[in-house]
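Complex record, two chains
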Amino acid sequence: MSVTEIIKYDKNCWNVNVEEPNYDFGKRTSRSIKISYLTKPKKRLLGDEWGFSKNYGEVVINSLPIEKKFQELTDRWKNETKGFSLAASKINNTNYLTIIGLGVTFPDKITKLILKDLKQSSSYWHYALKKITNANPVPKEFSANATKTRDFWLQWAYENDKL
Amino acid sequence: MSDYKGLYEMPKSSINKLWPNLNSSHYELKSDPTDEYNCVAWANHINHQSVDLSLDDDGEPLSYPDLSCLMYIEYFQSQGFEICESAEWEEGFEKIALYERDDRTFEHVARQMSDGIWTSKLGEWEDIEHSTLESLQSNHFYGNPVWYMRRSVK
C-alpha cells in the first residue's frame, strides 16, 4: 500500500489517495481516503511509507508492526503537545494526523489500540476516534473536554464490544 | 517538544528550545504537572476544569481566522474583562495578556497577580510565576503577548 497523491480538497481538507494492491487477483486498485488535514500533509508521506508485509498478511509500517508504529506515533504526539492548552493545537500535529490516516486504512486495529490507550490516560482521542469510526457518542457540549470525551468513548467501546 | 512530565525534570537546554527567554528571567514552579485545567481557565481563577474554545460544535478543530485572539477576547469580556492598553500593573485591576502565534492563532494567556508578577499554566505541565511576559515569548510555541485586558478587583 502506498500513498500516491495528495490533493487539496477545500480550505481544511486534503485528500490522500492510497493505492492498495489486490492480492486475490494480482491487480492493483486504488482508493481515495479523505482525511481532514489542517495543513498540507508532508510530501514524505508519498511513497511506500505504509505497507503490508508479504508474510502472513501482517500489517507493517516502515518495517514496524502496526502496534509498535502506533505506540511510536502516540508517544511522539503526546510528547510534542504536552505544552499546549488547546485541543486544536494537540490535534494539529503530524503524528496525530498520521494515526488518523492509519486508522482510516486499518479502522479495527487502530480503534482498538486507541481505546486501549484511552483506558490508561485521558488523552484527547475524541477527534481521531470520530474520524476513524464515523461514530460520535460525545454530546456537543463536551467535545473539548478530554476527561468527559474519554468517559463517553469508553462507554461506547463497552456497548459495542470494542474492548 | 519534550518527553518530560514537567519543567521540574526538564533540562535547561530543553526549556530554552521552548521559551528562549525563560531561563534568563526569574520564574518559579507553583504546582505539580496536571491536565485538570488549562491556561484559559487558570487566567480566570478556575482550577478544576479546562476552558477550550478551539473546537467547533461538531468537535472539528478551528484554525485562523476562527481560532484567533478575538474569540478569547470575547470570552474574557463575558467574564468581566475589558481591553486595555498595556500590561503595566494598575491599582484596583487584575490584568491578563493574550499570546498570539505567527499564524495569528491564539495559544496562551497569562494573568497578573496583585504584586505585579505573572502566573501561567503551561499546557499539561505546572503553573508558574514569571516576572515578565517576555519570559514565555517564543515565535513558534506560545507566540507573543499582543492583547491586554483588565478587570476590576472587588
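Note: Chain B has three helices and seven strands.
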